[in-house]
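seq:
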Amino acid sequence: MDTRLTSRGSRIDTGEGGVLVIGMGRFGSRLALRVESLGRDVLAVEKDPDLVRRWSGRIPLVEADATDPDALEQLGAQDFPVSVVGVGTAIEASVLITSNLVDLGTTQVWAKAISTEHARILQRIGAHHVVLPEADAAERVAHLVSGKLLDYIEFEDGFTIVKMRPPKETIGFTLGKLELRRKYGVTVIGVKSPGVEFEYANDHTRISSEDLLIVSGDSTLLDRFASRP
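struct:
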């Protein structure tokens, strides 16, 4: 099984879910630390000596310029099933690194983008997943501050899951009686009552004023449902 010696002297097992994180700015460093805390092997790559010094000893880390395909190959980047390009503000570097990883045949390349144009370029050169952290956060917060939504997760094609308080018209009724999917195009997945464990919803689930609802559906339909009094 392939391994690579890190700057900390430990060995990274790249054959069982190792993650390569390139760029140790705010996004990359937090992601690398979180991935490692979840029990995944991580190797970080950073070319800025100041950032290397800051993170050395805290996470497996090597100093290298990932825009150089030879440097990535020497690090064994091709052996990592997942690579994350955390470089964002330097768009040229982001594109070069992503392209290098795609050329090396990385199974999953995740890349951070700072604009829709940047994201489009990364997708065209072969990034499997493109993340726009600021845009995604802004979208989520906009929904949270403008209505009854307590949490908001949007997936592809507008499919969304939200946590919300129940509209008045639903209180005291069972889901079977309410027929929310027919009326509003949304589905209540589960209900969390105070002091009670989360319960997956069914037609017999009765909603009270203190419940929290987990609801799925199209984002537009969910916004409309959540805006009801």
